[in-house]
Write a structure and sequence with these properties.
Blueprint: H1 11-77
Amino acid sequence: MASVMPGISSPNAAAGGLAGFETAEAVGRSDEAVRQALSTITGRCEQFAGALKVGAHVIVSSEAIAARQLRSVGDLNEPSGI
C-alpha cells in the first residue's frame, strides 16, 4: 500500500493525526482561557483584600475616636475642683 504521508500508512491515520492537532489546539485555547480566568480571580482577590485592609483601618480608627470621645465625656463628669 502506498503511503499517503511519510510515516502514515492510510488516509484514516492522516485524519486521526489531524484530529489530534485540532484537539491539542482546543486544549491550548482552553488552557489559555483557564489562565485568564485564574488571573482575573487573583486580581479580584487582591482588590478584595485591599478593601478589607481599608475597612479594618476605618474600624480601628473609629474605635480610637470613640474611645477618645468616651474619655472626654468621662473628664466632663469629673469634678473640676472649681
